[in-house]
Structure formats: structure tokens, C-alpha cells
């Protein structure tokens, strides 16, 4: 066996080839697993339970990673949010800027939300005032008979973007997409 064969076949490399490995240690993941938010790159990492425990205490951000919480709160109130689309999510950045994201067939389009609009929204929905930057989002679907407003972990929004991107057909998304979106909201745990 050559040195190259030993490097290629070492245990960590085989574990990293698992369907879903922990992106910190390479251990295989169970179906449901935690996510960490990589603050500098602004993306999510899959994490095993052992690695997630390192970041669990009180929403602590150790270094450049932050554990994505599992808090979900269904919100009720006025449907007019002053945004041009009916399916969007809003993420507060650490600098106080709020980015609005619109799931589309090519991923999520984003724009900076006017500070006055965000102030009005947080005035209507008290739980949004405690929204954690980067790891929680205000998710809204007021389209095609849906009337959903939630405070959710950011990984729910990533799942929604993947659903829209994967299911979109034609100009309007197709009936299957809208059926799956309704199911997505119905299955959000409270």
C-alpha cells in the first residue's frame, strides 16, 4: 500500500464521504441534526450532536460559529408588511441591517430592507424584537391563500429555498410547488 493509498483510505476521509457528515469533525450524521452558522461566510454547516454541544450554552457564539436555535413561534397580525412579494424571509445581521430574501427558481434573491419598514414590523410582532442575528428569521407567506408568519431558525428558510428551487415549474411555480409549500408550513413544529 502506497502512502497515497493510506491517506485516501484513512478513516476520516471515509466518514466524510458519508451521505451527510458533520462539517466540523467528519462523523456521520443521523437524519435530524444541528446546524451551525458560519458568521464570516454567512452559510450553514451540518453538525453532529457532540460538536453542537460545544455551542449550545445560552446561544453562545464560540469563535466564528453560532448554533442555530430550534425556536419556532407562529405569529398573527396584519398581512400588509409593505414588501413587494408574498413569500419572503427576513434576517437581521449583527450590524443591525435587515436583509429580505425572496425564494425563487434560481435560489434566494435578497435586498436590504428599509429600517423604517423593519421598525414597523417589529412593532407589530413582539417576538421579532428578540430575534437572534444570523440564526433566526421572520418567515412570511401571504400568497395563494396562505397566511403564514413565523419566527423560525434560519435552516428552515434554507429548506424553503431548496424546496422552491427544486420544485418550481413554468412561470408561476406549478401546483405541486404550492401544495408542497402549504405542507411545509403545516409541518413546522410549534
Give the secondary structure arrangement, pairings included.
Elements: H1 3-8, H2 11-16, E1 34-38, E2 43-47, H3 49-53, E3 61-62, E4 65-67, E5 73-74, E6 87-92, E7 98-104, E8 107-112, H4 115-124, E9 136-141, E10 148-153, H5 154-167, H6 175-186
Antiparallel strand pairs: 1-2, 1-4, 3-4, 5-10, 6-7, 6-9, 7-8, 9-10
Helix pairs in contact: 5-6
InterPro entries: DUF5947 (IPR045991)
Pfam families: DUF5947
Q: What portion of residues belong to β-strands?
A: 25-35%
> In total, how many beta strands?
10
What proportion of the residues is helical, as a percent range?
25-40%
Instruction: Report strand order across the widest sheet.
Output: 5-10-9-6-7-8
Secondary-structure-derived class? alpha+beta
- The total count of helices amounts to 6
Q: Compute the CA-based radius of gyration.
A: 19 Å
Determine the N-to-C terminus distance.
Answer: 54 Å
- Low-confidence stretches are 3-9, 12-16
Mean pLDDT across the residues is: 84
What is the total domain count? 2
